[in-house]
Design a protein that fits this description.
Elements (H helix, E strand, L loop, with lengths): L30 H24 L31 E2 L7 E2 L7 E5 H7 L4 H4 L6 E5 L7 E4 L2 E3 L3 E2 L2 E2 L16 E8 L3 H4 L6 E7 L7 E9 L4 E10 L6 E11 L12 E14 L2 E15 L26 E18 L2 E24 L5 E28 L2 E29 L14 E24 L2 E19 L10 E17 L2 E12 L14 E15 L2 E13 L2 E3 L7 E3 L2 E16 L2 E16 L15 E10 L8 E10 L2 E2 L7 E2 L2 E13 L2 E8 L7 E6 L2 E4 L4 E9 L1
Parallel strand pairs: 7-10
Antiparallel strand pairs: 1-2, 3-9, 4-5, 5-6, 7-8, 9-10, 11-12, 11-38, 12-13, 13-14, 14-15, 15-16, 16-17, 17-18, 18-19, 19-20, 20-21, 21-22, 22-23, 23-24, 24-25, 25-28, 26-27, 28-29, 29-30, 30-31, 31-34, 32-33, 34-35, 35-38, 36-37
Length: about 725
């Protein structure tokens, strides 16, 4: 007795269609085809006999056999596999990546699923020259992009919390469709922004086809997480679809946090509505609540960070951080014709945090005692952002144009009050928590900031012919800023500061052949200061410019290599204050030069890869406070990572997959004064997963297999976040 194995559909991230298989041979006709043939055979026979008698031709009805539609990627939709081909982050138009004169790296959701990532920082290890920049005492995510720190990011093209210097919560990945990194300045489209680049998170959209997925995770050190997302049409409303993504997690971590836990709750409702074929309306809201321990990590001693005990905690049981961040984005698009589209985006944000913690301030002369103080901080913010854009496609003087013109209005404020008081010292090597709550605290700083900016921008993507494409853009920002950091000795209210800046951009692409494109570009940035500079009113805005030359080469239809060389100059940049921790100083000029390469896609059926390698030389080039030549904090010269998976495609082991990855980060200085350095490290990760069927997967992810000890993100001499030791994460996922 013989049989045939039944082929299962592969387990894919939700809403990624499976490619239609080629038509089977006659000897493998499907049961449906045979049934149809059996049904029509008598009719054909009878009709054939009648026709033979009458001599008339037989007229048969047309039978159309439809299979699953071929997958078509869009800039805001899912990616099939590890290789994206389109993006809107760099142009705000749906453009092929090979037609962009600036590096854009994409981390698709499938990579996040395979690696079982729960942190934005972990997902971005897949991108060259991007490193975690420190979590600001466990509060939020910051990153080092091409040597420069960025403390905010965009969601669906809208920057978060632009009135402050960091987003108050850590980003959840439950509703993330893809993560895109636009390298280098991008003020022509985004206005405010850091010269290192823009991180843009593209969210999962509602679907008219019902889908649902949920996962349960548990791992080392008490980690627990549940997340889910459900989407489908809204009954009784044509063209209306909704999605709800939720997640909750508890993470005690490997740190000895005096028995405390870190927790986060996240919810993201979204709707889309197509009232007509030419009109599209979408809304997404996100609500995040975070309750964590205020943890500054490890402390430097004698120019290095001891790693003998990476769980060492210098805080107290009362050290806490509570925050919430909320926003809603409404987008309306209308096509006047297939070549003219009007787009309106409205965004409103609000949030707050309060912290009460013990903070290290210094070491005793013998280095055996940590001096501390008590710090309490409260902060609130709110903002509105409006973007009105017109996209037109037309021919002019024999050239094809895709033009974008827009106007953006932003109005935001924040209020941050910091108080402090004395606190007893603890042992450097054996800190013992358990002190009683301190008494009254005194004012350290009362910061009030308000930004109101209007930006006018225009962009044109021009097809010149002969494989050449030209990208031109310019933006003009104007507005005012009120910035007052009141201290016990400074109470004079400064006047509002007038702000204005012009941000040009030019790029040229040469399509040498179908799989190969070369490009060169010049881009700039403009950013009002949001850093908390002690005792300084209305600090000057920051500016930057970049020259980049690069290439994109499709090694195969499913595997792409990108490479670039860049040179970035940044002026009026803020850096951690080496004297007053928790504050910033305005330095002079910094410069970052480097080279990088990224690979993403499918090598062979079932074998996928994503990774990159980069070299960056980021230094102070002009300053009155920091020595010229100092390396920028947190920026390694050499870094790289690779992640690859293979899943069995046929046979009895079909559905079984394995993954492996290596991440290397070179040594970094922990502060801009270069008083200490953290060492290089190499981390090895692995995964085993099995698709029980097309609806369920079990995976086991092993992280830091060699149990390497390292500092993941230095921030200042009292705030250095150690990397997690060897850990295991088990995930059970179900999807419809």
């Amino acid at each position: 007795m013989t049989g045939r194995l039944r082929r299962r559909k592969p387990f894919l991230p939700p809403e990624v269609p499976v490619r239609s298989p080629p038509c089977p041979a006659v000897r493998r006709r499907s049961p449906l085809f045979l049934a149809l043939l059996a049904g029509v055979a008598p009719i054909l026979a009878a009709g054939g006999a009648d026709a033979q008698e009458s001599g008339e031709a037989i007229a048969l009805d047309t039978i159309t056999v439809a299979g699953a539609p071929a997958f078509r990627e869009t800039a805001t939709g899912p990616v099939q596999g590890y290789r994206a081909t389109r993006s809107a982050t760099a142009t705000k138009t749906d453009t092929a990546l090979r037609d962009l004169p600036q590096t854009v790296n994409v981390v698709p959701r499938e990579v996040i699923v395979d690696r079982a990532e729960t942190r934005l920082a972990d997902a971005l290890f897949n991108v060259s020259n991007v490193q975690p920049g420190g979590t600001i005492q466990g509060r939020s995510d910051t990153f080092i992009i091409r040597g420069f720190r960025t403390q905010t990011y965009a969601i669906d093209g809208v920057f978060m919390n632009q009135a402050s210097n960091f987003y108050p919560v850590q980003r959840d990945l439950a509703d993330v469709e893809r993560i895109e990194v636009l390298k280098g300045p991008a003020s022509v489209l985004y206005g405010r922004g850091d010269p290192g680049g823009v991180i843009n998170i593209v969210t999962r959209q509602p679907s008219l086809v019902p889908t649902a997925d949920a996962s349960i995770q548990g791992g080392s050190f008490g980690f627990r997480r549940v997340q889910g997302s459900v989407s489908g049409p809204v009954p009784g409303a044509d063209g209306l679809a909704a999605r709800l993504s939720v997640a909750t997690q508890v993470d005690p971590t490997f740190r000895d946090l005096a028995g405390r836990d870190n927790s986060r709750f996240f919810a993201a409702p979204a709707i889309t509505w197509n009232p007509s074929p030419d009109t599209r309306v979408s809304f997404i809201g996100e609500f995040t609540r975070q309750d964590t321990v205020y943890d500054e990590g490890l402390i430097t001693r004698n120019g290095r960070v001891p790693l003998d005990n990476i769980s060492r905690y210098y805080g107290e049981p009362f050290s806490r951080y509570n925050a919430n961040a909320n926003f809603g984005t409404l987008k309306i698009e209308h096509d006047f014709s297939e070549n003219l589209t009007l787009r309106q985006v409205l965004n409103a944000q609000s949030g707050s945090f309060d912290a009460f913690a013990s903070r290290a301030t210094g070491l005793s002369a013998n280095g055996l005692t940590v001096q501390r103080r008590t710090t309490a901080a409260t902060s609130t913010y709110a903002s509105v952002d409006s973007q009105t854009e017109l996209v037109a496609k037309f021919d002019f003087l024999g050239l094809r144009h895709t033009a974008l013109v827009g106007i953006e209005y932003f109005n935001g404020y924040r209020r941050a009050v910091t108080t402090q008081g004395p606190l007893a010292s603890v042992s450097f090597f054996d800190p013992v928590p358990g002190l009683a709550l301190p008494g009254a605290l005194s004012l350290q700083s009362d910061l009030k900031q308000k930004n109101e900016l209007t930006g006018l921008y225009a962009q044109d993507q021009i097809e010149l012919g002969y494989g050449l494409q030209l990208l031109l853009g310019v933006r003009y920002d104007t507005g005012n800023q009120f910035y007052f950091s009141r201290t016990p000795t400074s109470r004079t209210i400064p006047p509002e500061q007038e702000l204005s800046g012009i941000s040009p951009r030019v790029g040229l692409i040469y399509r040498v052949a179908e799989p190969l494109a070369l490009y060169a570009s010049y881009t700039t940035s403009f950013k009002p200061q949001t850093a908390n500079v002690l005792g300084v009113a209305n600090p000057p805005p920051e500016t930057g410019e970049q020259i980049e030359v690069g290439t994109r080469f499709d090694l195969s239809p499913d595997l792409s290599l990108t490479a670039s060389v860049f040179d970035i100059t940044r002026n009026n940049v803020s850096a951690n204050d080496p004297v007053n921790s928790g504050f910033s100083i305005i330095t002079g000029q910094q410069r970052s030069k480097g080279v990088e390469a990224d690979l993403a896609g499918t090598i062979l059926p079932g074998w996928k890869v994503i990774g990159g390698i980069g070299y960056t030389d980021a230094r102070v080039t002009r300053d009155t406070t920091i020595p010229v030549g100092n390396r920028l904090d947190g920026a390694p010269q050499v870094s790289g990572s690779v992640w690859t998976t293979y899943q069995v495609q046929e046979g009895p082991w079909r559905g079984l997959g394995i993954g492996a990855g290596v991440t290397h980060v070179g040594s970094r200085f922990g502060d801009i004064t270069n008083t200490y350095k953290v060492g290089a490290y190499t981390r090895v990760d692995a995964a085993v997963f099995y698709d029980l069927n097309e609806h369920a997967r079990f995976s086991l992810n092993l992280k830091n297999l060699t149990d390497a000890r390292y500092i993941e993100a230095p921030f200042n001499q009292f705030n250095n976040i150690p990397g997690a030791p060897f850990s295991v994460l088990a995930t059970l996922t179900a999807r419809m």
